[in-house]
Amino acid sequence: MRWNPEQLLADFLVVAELGEIKMEPDAIRVETLMMPHRPPRNLPKGKIAVYVFSDKERVLKVGKAGPQSQPRYTNQHYNAGSAPSTLAASILKDEDAVQRYGLNKRNISGWIKKNTDRVNFIVDADYYGSILNLLEAFVQCRLQPVYEGKQRNKGRKG
Description:
35% of the residues lie in helices and 18% in strands.
């Protein structure tokens, strides 16, 4: 992983303050699951999250999970047919990745667990709504994930 989750959180808190969002200092907790990792068992009660999948070089996917999104948070990204726009489905649409790593529907889950880090920004559910959307958008803009949206952000510096 080539980015610092704690620094990203600190930068986000500045953005939230600029947006006049009042947050308690401990309202967001960073959980880092290094490769190989196990998917989280659950989204803790009273929490929401933004999560990031990265390999050694790139950020692959950023997503969010609200209070009713247990499957999205815990397992859908590891299984290609489980829901629209999962990490697994996105990788399997990438012909280069499929050929390079010999990936298919049967082995993609194990490959993701073995070859990606996962960072979870776990947020008090009191901040559900615009704060979750702002955090996800900020993380996407900052990290520019490979499998996010149909087109890359043309306004990105560098």
